[in-house]
């Protein structure tokens, strides 16, 4: 084997070892008695902040405004009608744009968690800290509670130092696991893009061409997500469904989610906690061992 190839293989092996070392599986997720599966409904209250940073045209950005004006309220109503407690990952700037919606989410007993200041994590450590603290303070001002969860790539150490107990950002597993980095450990509540509304219902996604649009029939998404749910239900697993108010807040998609939640509720042992509730339960059970 030539030297360059062998060096490349060594580097790959080192990367795999360090990746494995940052990921600790939980041997058995201990759910409360009679619970078979935890389903986290999570919503990223983005209103296309990311696209604003990318200077997308007003016609595109207006879709985000729909999320703040209409979509988020429809989602709150949907969750409340089913007694489902959801987690809404909220960028700090949303507190300036849609304060009443953020208050209503918290008033309904749903969790408001961090989703960066303006949907990006700065590379400069001081600015990164500033964004995280600014977001936590803005959310606390409206909800009366500091966030303990984040959907972001903020450094685990910074999150842990500031009282965060979990992250929900990656797809590295299908069950909750512990993620380590630089001496910090946080619980990770994974999701997957196959259970993310934006992957099915996005028109003009990130400057895509007309022949690349993905407006999927909601019934098709219902079938896919129901199958994903049943797959996890059979093995006593976990499901994190990622929604966006400007995507799922559209009427036919709300109707699809309504049917999906109603059908999930027909089975015994389905638990709909907030991410915080689930994280606290898993962490407490871990300590008890
Ligand atoms: Zn987002």
Brief characterization of the structure:
By secondary structure, this protein is of the alpha/beta class.
Fold and architecture overview:
By secondary structure, the chain is α/β, with parallel strands linked by helices. 47% of the residues lie in helices and 16% in strands. The chain has helices at residues 3-21, 49-53, 58-82, 94-97, 99-107, 125-143, 156-161, 218-234, 245-248, 251-264, 275-288; strands spanning 23-25, 37-44, 87-90, 111-114, 149-150, 166-167, 177-181, 184-188, 201-202, 214-215, 238-243, 270-271. A 5-stranded mixed sheet has the order 1-7-8-6-5. Strands 2, 3, 4, 11 and 12 form a 5-stranded parallel sheet that branches. Helix 7 (156-161) links the parallel strand 5 and strand 6 (166-167). Zinc ion (ZN) is lined by residues 44, 46, 115, 119.
List keywords for this structure.
alpha/beta; TIM Barrel; five-stranded mixed sheet; five-stranded parallel sheet; 11 helices; 47% helix; binds zinc ion
